[in-house]
Each structure stands twice: as C-alpha cells, then as structure tokens.
Amino acid sequence: MTKLKLLGTEQNRKIYAKHGSGPEVFGVSFAELEKLRKHIKQDHTLATELWKTANYDACNLATMIADSAKMSAADLDAWAKRIESHGAGSLFARNIALKTAFAEQKVDLWTKSKSELIGETGYAVLSGVALNENDLPDSYFEEWLKKIERGIHAAPNRVRHGMNNALIAIGTRNQHLRDLALAAAARIGKVSVDHGDTGCKTPDAIAYIQKAAKRKGS
Fold this sequence. Notes:
The protein is mostly helical. The chain contains 13 helices and no strands. The protein has helices at 2-7, 10-18, 30-40, 44-52, 56-65, 73-80, 86-95, 103-110, 116-132, 138-151, 157-171, 175-188, 205-216. Helix 11 (157-171) packs parallel to helix 13 (205-216). The N and C termini lie far apart (48 Å).
C-alpha cells in the first residue's frame, strides 16, 4: 500500500474519481500496475488482502495477481460483495471470475443482484463468456438476448451498460446470434447510460455488431 501510494498522482486521482473510483484511490496508472504485476507475478494471499482494502488501485492490482484456480464459488461471491467501483468490477470479471469453472453460475446469480455494481459485473462475465466460451450452444445466448431485451430499459444505470455490452458480445459469436442480436437491438432502441463527468459514450449495439461482422468478413 505504501508503494501504491507513492506511485499515485493527483491527475490520475481526478480522472479515476470521475469514473467512479470512490474516495479510496491513490491514482496509480495502469502502466505502473502492470510493472508491479510483472514483479509480483502471482500472489493470491496478497491479492486477497489488497482486495479487502477497498482502495481502487489496490483492488485493480489484486485482480492482476490473484490465482483464479484458488477461487471457490464462495470466494467469488465474497469478492463480489466488496466491489466498490465498476472499473474494479470489470477487471474482477475479466481477470478472475471468467477464468473459473463457476463463470456461468455467477452470471446467473450476479445478474439478479440488487447491487448495481454486482449486477454490472455479472453482465461483464456474460460478455466474456460470449466472447471466449466456444462450447456453449446458441440456445444459452438466445435466452440471454430475451432477458436483456425485456429488462434493459428498467435496469439500474450501470447494469444497462453491462447489458448493452453483453448484447454486443453475443452478437459477435456467429451469424445466427448476430441476426437475433441485431433484431433485439433494433427493438430496444437507444440505451441511455449516465457516464458522469467523463467522455465515455454508450456503444451503439447495431453499429458495433455490424462492425465486428465486417472485421470477421462475414
């Protein structure tokens, strides 16, 4: 923590605060975090302690040095309950939860959470599953497209963001799901997400899915 504090900058603190870091933030650049990751490599005990601090930078580093193989289903839930920012939640989803055997289980559980940040994290895991899990049948994602279409406009702010990203991810899997996702996106219409005092914008699902299809040449 002392090292992280020394590496932080006021400029980064201001930027991260605008992106919802919360008050506990040193402002360490991700370039510096990557240097620490290379030095530490993997240290699950340290990662667990860093995550408990609720400090934005410490939590980000924790997701980078944790050992996903040592995470039980209960461990994942315990970590999820400590998510204090959507940035850390996204890293937790990508670097840890997605790499465990419990990813699909946690998608189902976390997307139902009353916590906005846990809900968004659940959809971040779903996006990862859509992009990386090749063995799941289309029927699995067809059901998620229906759920997203039914619930996206009534969902909390950050959950809408996660649902929209999951819609895009599902639409990039294959032509069948692309057609379904595009149709769903057309019926959904514009998805409004408040990104606060940042330059972030909500991706247009149709445009992103079509762009991905062109890159794949399909």
